[in-house]
């Protein structure tokens, strides 16, 4: 799990994802992760992976948008 997360971060940095995005993998039975997709502007509908992740962190659906706005206004 940590290796996939680290790989996703590396990929996001390589392709220039700055505020939000999604890096998708498929993991085989041996635990090998394969990059399947990079979404620079993924869906944020209530049935999206973003909504699921926010829910798992104890956040509300509407928090997605304030987070995206906050991240996009961050100064490097």
Report on this structure.
By secondary structure, the chain is an alpha+beta fold. A hairpin with a 5-residue loop joins strand 1 (22-27) and strand 2 (33-39). It contains three helices and two strands, in the order H-E-E-H-H. A two-stranded antiparallel sheet has the order 1-2. The protein has helices at 2-15, 49-56, 63-72; strands at 22-27, 33-39. The relative contact order is 0.15. The protein has two domains: 1-42, no CATH class; 43-76, no CATH class.
Structure summarized in a few sentences:
The protein contains three helices and two strands. With 76 residues, it is an alpha+beta fold.
Radius of gyration: 13 Å
Tally the beta strands.
Answer: 2
Number of helices: 3
| Tally of individual domains | 2
Distance between the termini: 28 Å
Spatial arrangement of strands, main beta sheet: 1-2
Structural class based on helices, strands and sheet pairing: alpha+beta
Please state the overall shape, judged from the principal axes of the Cα atoms. globular
Compute the average pLDDT. 88
The helix content, as a percent range, equals 40-55%
**Low-confidence runs of at least 5 consecutive residues:** none
Report on the biggest sheet. 2 strands, antiparallel
Q: What percentage of amino acids are in beta strands?
A: 15-25%
Run of helices and strands: HEEHH
What is the secondary structure topology, with strand pairs?
Layout: H1 2-15, E1 22-27, E2 33-39, H2 49-56, H3 63-72
Antiparallel strand pairs: 1-2
What descriptors fit this protein?
globular, 2 domains, alpha+beta, 2 strands, 17% strand, 76 residues
